[in-house]
Amino acid sequence: MHHERTSSAEPDELVDVLDERHLRTDTVDAWVARLNRIGIPAGRIGSIADAIDLAERLGLEPTAEVGEAPKQVRNPITFSRTPITTYGAPPALGEHNDAVRRWLEEEGAR
């Protein structure tokens, strides 16, 4: 059911009130621990680099070497009978433009 009062509330005001009266009373880590203890899933919001660092600390090997290109994020799914042994770098900017244009022309001719 749609409630006009709740949907029109100013979210910035709510954030300000929570932040000022409650959230700033302790650290992020303390709040995460407190919420997790009472069964509320919570965690620090991080960057992609933070996620990769955490995965590395957990021994999950989140990246793959791809030759001269920067490390790439590895597929997290692994198969014991058919492991992935090679990885490729993403295409360079514009690398496939001509092939895509040819394909589009062929599709348009059908």
From TrEMBL:
Gene3D superfamilies tied to this protein: Crotonobetainyl-coa:carnitine coa-transferase, domain 1 (3.40.50.10540), formyl-coa transferase, domain 3 (3.30.1540.10)
Keywords in alphabetical order: Transferase
Highest rank taxon of the organism: Bacteria
A single MF term (Gene Ontology): transferase activity
InterPro entries reported for this sequence: CoA-Trfase_fam_III (IPR003673), CoA-Trfase_III_dom3_sf (IPR044855), CoA-Trfase_III_dom_1_sf (IPR023606)
Listed SUPFAM superfamilies: CoA-transferase family III (CaiB/BaiF)
Protein name: CoA transferase
Species the sequence originates in: Streptomyces malaysiensis subsp. samsunensis
Source organism phylogeny: Bacteria, Bacillati, Actinomycetota, Actinomycetes, Kitasatosporales
